[in-house]
Amino acid sequence: MANLQTAMDSAFWDQPISSPRTLEGSANSIPGEPFPLDAARASRALRIQQLSFLGLGFPLGIIPSYAPASPSPSQKELELGSFALESLLLRPSTSNWWLGLVGQFRPKKLISDIKREFSAAEDLELSVFTSAAKHVLDKSLYSVGLCSQLSIGPSTSLLWSTERHGHKKGKRSKFMLYHKLLSHDITLEAAWPQLFIDHKAQYWDVPESVSLNVASLASDSGLRYRFGIQKNGGQPESANAIDGEPPAALMPGLCAKAAFSYEQRKDMWRNKETKEDLIIKTDKGSFWRPAYDVCLREPHAAISTIIGGTCVAWFGGKESSMAGESQDGRIAVNTKKRSPLSADLFGSICCTVQHGKFRRIFADLTRVDARLDISSVSGLAKSILNTFSRNSASSADNLVFSPRLNFILQQQVLGPIVFRVDSKYLLDAASGKDGSHMEDVIYSLSYSLRLLRSGKVVAWYSPKRKEGMIELRLFEF
């Protein structure tokens, strides 16, 4: 079943989206934006833990990734290239503490500089080799990150991380405190700066972001709730040099927010797993044959839905209409007025059909998920009124609040290898050429690991963002 919890998580500032632009491997989504694709949600495992595991299966423990480098004003993005290599360089640990050092290297600029040195040289003298070797010391080629986690008892942990990119000024730092109660999770998160990504694949850096959230655990009744506060400090800056005004949710101010959701699921039919499925008999005896992924072990057809609401109160932030300067010197101005108090409703409905039990080597898994998302009922109502009143001034807002239709197709290729396509369509026939169209798509290839019950190594690529990376994901369908 497609992840319906995305509907509630998208209302807050701490929903991580997979991104190779940081060594942390993620950027946060923006509240008030359309829900992200399921394939875009970051892994539950920390990036440094993923690198530790993935390094066992890659030569020299080096994992590739692909993302345009966000350049400084004096550099061109094309010099550094998009291809990068990551590796876990160091990870000392004790029973309740560990420290990890991650390194990243972008080889394109180094190869181009060395090639330029030899092309310009008339004779291959020692000075030519010495000059070419100096390019290895170019700090813009390298990025380094440090991450540490300390467990304070069985229910509390602290996480601290910092990273510096050689081609950019400054560094990124983050602190997290996680505490687990009997039926709630408490999370304190502070980042300076915090990287966010909007539905247009534009990245924004908020100089200071602090959040405190309390979330209830999933219950049998389907009711969940969550509340918290968020503080944004400083003007948002464009992190990938794209024109446009920063989202209102990222402007300076203090926000208190509460949300609830009610989720229900109904199976139209389902083939339950049996002992005959788990044990196969051959001439050589009986063998245990579990599914490659326990989340994909039962053929079924199901319908699920989630409805919920949010209440938001903003304090301060009078400077929200001021201009912010991006990294390349461009000015981003936010002219939208942010309501000090607002409430809204959201909802999703999903239909899932799965054929196969994902046990055999071939033709044992085909799955399709179709999900309709409405991120803002009030925004959708306003867009409908604007359509009838032919108000074109708010056409951009109409597109943001329009419903989205998500399709997820999963097809077994061979054994534990599955090809997956996540696509999102904007539904707005009243906007002419800017109306209904495919808004986003992510292609991925995964290798399921039986020993982890529901773990897989996923390689994905996003044409819209021009990014791709390899991740370890756990207990995700």
Number of domains: 1
* Overall CATH class: Mainly Beta
Mean pLDDT: 88
The SS-based structural class is: mainly beta
Shape: globular
Percent helix among the residues? 10-25%
What's the N-to-C terminus distance? 7 Å
Radius of gyration: 24 Å
CATH topology-level name: Porin
CATH architecture: Beta Barrel
The fraction of residues in strands falls at: over 45%
Count of alpha/pi helices: 8
Please describe the biggest sheet, giving its number of strands, its sense, and whether it closes into a barrel.
18 strands, antiparallel
Low-confidence segments, given as residue ranges, are: 319-333
Q: What is the number of E strands?
A: 27
Organism: Citrus sinensis (Sweet orange)
Protein name: Protein TRIGALACTOSYLDIACYLGLYCEROL 4, chloroplastic
InterPro entries: DUF3769, TGD4-like
Pfam family, one: DUF3769
Please give a handful of descriptors for the protein shown:
Porin; 477 residues; mainly beta; DUF3769; 18-stranded antiparallel β-sheet; 3-stranded antiparallel β-sheet; 8 helices; TGD4-like
How would you characterize the overall build of this protein?
GO terms for molecular function: phosphatidic acid binding. InterPro entries: DUF3769, TGD4-like. This is Protein TRIGALACTOSYLDIACYLGLYCEROL 4, chloroplastic. It holds the Pfam family DUF3769. With 477 residues, the chain is mostly beta strands. The chain has one domain (4-240, 249-316, 338-392, 402-473): Porin. It is built from eight helices and 27 strands. The chain has helices at residues 6-9, 47-54, 77-80, 107-120, 126-134, 275-278, 377-388, 395-401, and strands at 16-18, 26-28, 62-66, 83-90, 97-105, 142-151, 156-165, 171-180, 184-192, 194-197, 203-206, 208-216, 223-233, 237-238, 253-270, 279-282, 285-288, 300-315, 323-325, 331-333, 341-355, 366-374, 404-414, 417-426, 437-449, 455-462, 467-474. α4 (107-120) packs antiparallel against α5 and α7 crosses α8 (395-401). It is globular and about 75 Å long.
